[in-house]
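Entry 14. Ran structure prediction on the chain below.
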Amino acid sequence: MLVRQLPEQVVNRIAAGEVVERPASVVKELVENAIDAGASRIDIFTDGGGRRKIVITDDGGGMTAPDLALAVDRHATSKLDDEDLLQIRTLGFRGEALPSIGAVAKLCIATRHGSEPHAWQLAVEGGAKGDVMPAALTQGTRVEVADLFYATPARLKFLKTDRTEAEAIRETVRRLAMARPEVAFTLAGEERAPVTWAAALPGAPGRLTRLGDILGADFRANAIDVRSEREGVVVEGYAASPALTRANALGQYLFVNGRPVRDKLILGAVRAAYADYLPRDRHPVVALFVTLDPREVDANVHPAKTEVRFRNAGLVRALIVHALKDGLSREGKRTAANSGGTAIASFRPAFTRPANWDWRRSPSYPIGLAPSFAGAAAALAEQDQATFDVGTPTADVRLDTLPPGDLLDRPLGAARTQIHETYIVSQTRDGLVIVDQHAAHERIVYERLKASLAKNGVQRQILLIPEIVELDEATVERLLSRAEELASFGLVVESFGPGAVAVRETPSLLGKTDAGGLLRDLAEHMEEWDEALPLERRLMHVAATMACHGSVRAGRRLKPEEMNALLREMEDTPNSGQCNHGRPTYVELKLADVERLFGRR
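Output, structure tokens:
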């Protein structure tokens, strides 16, 4: 076959396929251009999910007539001072956005530079460039894109519904608005009511304001300030406490030098930092901003600039994990049940009147009103009294038996009782606290295991008679292949013939434990591991499983001194607001909240 040169219009349409995937891609490129032009306000309007029309208006620097004529040519850009692609300090730099959009749609640009007496306008239709003409515009630039993909009809078949495309545009603008809180954004269109994000103050307060406006009041209420810096790399932003989670990772917003990205390394670091705080099926909400020398990051690895590559990826990952863990440790005693009124909502009374209800049988009915009802009222009184006869508490701590010292001023108060052999109820100076004894002790044991491992290794206890645990051969192989990792936590296992292992030593912290149940749980977790999972994370999985088996179980009756000792240990243990699986360890009710429940406020 003969080799031939493709026509310029075909070349432009092929290149446009890399940059313009959908209407949201057009919005992203044009808004980034507006930001790079120094705009303080950007208005976005779309129609038909961006398919019929997209209009972007900004108050940036604008362009002169010669610049406008050159801007729609391929590989023409004002974002590079020289040919050094390692010094990228702007969002756009390829010089492909405008010509790519003009190749597949009807593009019209009106712009006015401060040095020009009036604005200029240029139209590009299906790659055909028109003449620069005078226009009316006070300041900045107005870009209108109509009939997207009309020049490449095949691409239209791959677009989704107008509503779906409009939502993609909204998500794109949200991310750019998070990255630039100092810029005001307005998003409007046929598919939605107008949304405006006003310009925020510079610095951390303004950033949190913008994040709260976009992510909602729940994020603002649960936001934890995080920051870490080393070797010129700065990681800062806000992470939601474990009280606020989502079912997917779409609530994780990541920015590198002001550029929204989706980077697997950063997402993995976020997942590792939250591993001790959330259940497996829940994901955190974070907004992290990584700032570093442009020479240390390659923003040129993806045509849409949504991915980056770090020169020192290990340093960036370590800083993210450190920043998140440090912030979560500071707020470790904040529990999911203590946020957003969740606990109070659970206590709202709900009265349902029985179908056969008779007002004359109501306890409030005057008994002396009709003697014939006296017997019925007496019987009813006995039934009502029996309703409140729920038995004695599992353990009871009277006021006159409290230990010396005023424990009411401690964060978790003084233990008053244990109910259902599972929950400890304590009293604080201004409320009450309900503690899940198993979840609380599980976190305490877990943190002890981690501290012991980091300090001098986990202390072991040798079993007088090794415990033999029978398992299937595949499970035995998995356990024995990780024997060294298990030994680092004081759990020493050996092969005991086909389909069995012998447990010779166990961690001293666990005391007497069910070795068989522990090994089966560990084997189930190991089945999900792969070699890419870091050793540190594998060890933490082992520690978490051991902590669960070595904790005070629900159903165990505790003495008063044991309950108070558990509360004091919780106060001294980091991250004690959640157990290893992300469940809350306690619920706190302020006295004012209780009074509202009973109409006293």
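Confidence is low (pLDDT under 50) at residues 362-381, 383-390, 530-535. Will compare against last week's run tomorrow.
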